[in-house]
Amino acid sequence: MSNRIDNLLHEARRFPPTEQFAADAIAGADLYEAAENDRLQFWADRARELLHWHTPFTRTLDWSNPPFAKWFDDGALNVAYNCLDRHVLAGNGDRIALHWEGEPGDSRSYTYSELTSEVKRAANLLTSLGIRQGDRVAIYLPMIPEAVISMLAVARIGAVHSVVFGGFSAESLRSRIDDASAKLVITADGGYRKGSVFPLKQAVDAALAADGESTVSHVLVVKRGGNEVEWTEGRDLWWHDEMVAVDDEHVAKAFPAENPLFILYTSGTTGKPKGILHTSGGYLTQTAFTHRSVFDLHAESDVYWCTADVGWITGHSYVVYGPLANGATQVLYEGTPDSPHPGRWWDIIQKYGVSIFYTAPTAIRSFMKAGRQIPQQFDLSSLRLLGSVGEPINPEAWIWYRDVIGGGETPIVDTWWQTETGAIMVSALPGVTTLKPGSAQVAIPGIQIEVLDDEGHDVGLDSGGLLVVSEPWPSMLRGIWGDPERYKETYWDKFGDKYFAGDGARRDRDGDLWLLGRVDDVMNVSGHRLSTAEIESALVSHPMVAEAAVVGAEDEATGQAVVAFVIVRASQADVATADEASALLRAHVAEQIGAIAKPRTVFLVAELPKTRSGKIMRRLLRDVAEGREVGDTTTLADTQVMQIITDRLK
Ligand code: PRX
């Protein structure tokens, strides 16, 4: 890590905005000034400017009971009305909201009027199924328009969605359904991925058949994959049958600004994912503001595409809520970047004339590896702004992205934020900031970031520390579902009433921020957050495993990769060869959590390195996994153990 940062800090390339870009940009330097003068007034102005309030608010922030914040709390709004109806009423009903592209090549476009009608129908359908304000609805869908329609329909009636990424297993789905006591699941028969259909309904059936009564009374099934599904009469309903039976008129009622909007589960340092809770008014204010100013959205002319799945926070904030609140035209794509050919993404950019493109460094690195000749076969000249999210982008990838995808001209905004922050917190503003490849740069206007040492002192310029948000912000998480204590402990205990993000960071001499990765036991694999503890508990749930330790090892393609060290039970030791055991355990993790959590490597070992108090020393295992000389072992209970491990792996 220290080598990497030394290299980064020697990165001297600078890219100021062109005069033309700066002149046409939505966001100017005056925003920083306004926010500095009066931060709360700044956010109140944004909330009024960007959203429609059925009942205007008079209070901006209530921070009388930290860390439980309330924003705009005497105001009332309807999130879906803000994303749909008001654009139609403003005369933009014929503007395309979604250009949807299915993986097999089928496509469908929805204008704002059409999307509004669909969401109204779906809202009536949910109401007819007994869903009321505050009820939880689990959504387990591929990237099809119905995913967006479902989320907005839930929001429209004041209920709470919990979207579960379609790549998660039945087990993961069930634990999320149970934790939130979801009443309804919206799923599909299957979706397309890498040229074939992956089943989803089957996983829902398995999830609901697991031990113990489930809270789910209905399962709504969208027909997408055309694959065979089993049917539970009385519980399961086809989306297309039900949607035609309901009215497409629905009046959006206003809900309080702090009405819960969604729960989204994310990995923490324990085995149990945390249900991050977001509410309505503050969340929509900051997602709309950042989407407009960071991506310089000119809604009448831009075509925007964010490649994230709606199962992640990026999909919530920058596929659904931010863009639709701003009346953007966007692309939604179902499949993988390389199906059916390695240039599929670039093909889509060419087809729809995408002008703003937002993706993750891991994707960029994999395209770099495949070579520039692939994107060069397509006309990418419509692009005028590129974005990056999910993990640090190394300067080489940054330059390649700008040169090959952006024609050597487009600004790149590297955006730092988290599931918990709800919206972008650190990023350049493309018409204002001189860009530095590899740095996420500066807090957006209205956000206060500090870099502190363990004792809470500012580390100053040119040194590393912990990234902290020192003032509450509108789209901040409001808690962990059902666990206020864990919310306080995880984020607020360390620095009093400042939010501890779990990331290391450094400010360079100009004050620009460089993100250094997680400082806790959370891994970042292809921009997805995974917990070491969660994968360890999946591994030890297999009868073959006595003990397991998981680390995130540096990986050129995926940023980090999951590497597991496993002690096999003596009674099982002869059951399989090391290769077979490793394959079996990788498959077991995929089944327990989902394919994204599958270890890259499983090492079978005789011992694990532990301190005298029994804590596994992951630092040493990371040395082994990354092929380095093993570091200081003096605090180990048994100093021989690393020798035993490395001998065995030779
Ligand atoms: O470590 C940071 C990394 O991703 C974590 C948040 O993950 P998640 O909640 O899944 O949200 C990802 C998409 C917003 C952070 O704690 N991270 C995210 N963006 C960046 C980043 N690291 C460096 N640079 C970024 N731009």
UniProtKB/TrEMBL annotation:
Catalysis: reaction(s): acetate + ATP + CoA = acetyl-CoA + AMP + diphosphate
Residues annotated for CoA binding in this entry: 193-196, 314, 526
Signal peptide (residue range): none
Binding site for ATP: 390-392, 414-419, 503, 518, 529
Enzyme class, broadest EC rank: ligase
Superkingdom of the organism of origin: Bacteria
InterPro entries in UniProt: Ac_CoA_lig (IPR011904), ACAS_N (IPR032387), AMP-bd_C (IPR025110), AMP-bd_C_sf (IPR045851), AMP-binding_CS (IPR020845), AMP-dep_synth/lig_dom (IPR000873), ANL_N_sf (IPR042099)
Keyword field: Acetylation, ATP-binding, Ligase, Magnesium, Metal-binding, Nucleotide-binding
Pfam families noted in UniProt: ACAS_N (PF16177), AMP-binding (PF00501), AMP-binding_C (PF13193)
PANTHER family cross-referenced by the UniProt entry: ACETYL-COENZYME A SYNTHETASE, ACETYL-COENZYME A SYNTHETASE 1
Annotated gene: acsA
Residues that bear N6-acetyllysine: 615
BP GO terms, sorted: acetyl-CoA biosynthetic process from acetate
Protein name per its UniProtKB record: Acetyl-coenzyme A synthetase
Organism expressing this protein natively: Agreia pratensis
Keyword hit for Heme: no
Gene Ontology, cellular component aspect: cytosol
Residues given in the record as Mg(2+) binding sites: 540, 542, 545
Function: Catalyzes the conversion of acetate into acetyl-CoA (AcCoA), an essential intermediate at the junction of anabolic and catabolic pathways. AcsA undergoes a two-step reaction. In the first half reaction, AcsA combines acetate with ATP to form acetyl-adenylate (AcAMP) intermediate. In the second half reaction, it can then transfer the acetyl group from AcAMP to the sulfhydryl group of CoA, forming the product AcCoA.
Cofactor(s) required for function per UniProt: Mg(2+)
Ranges for domain AMP-binding enzyme C-terminal: 534-615
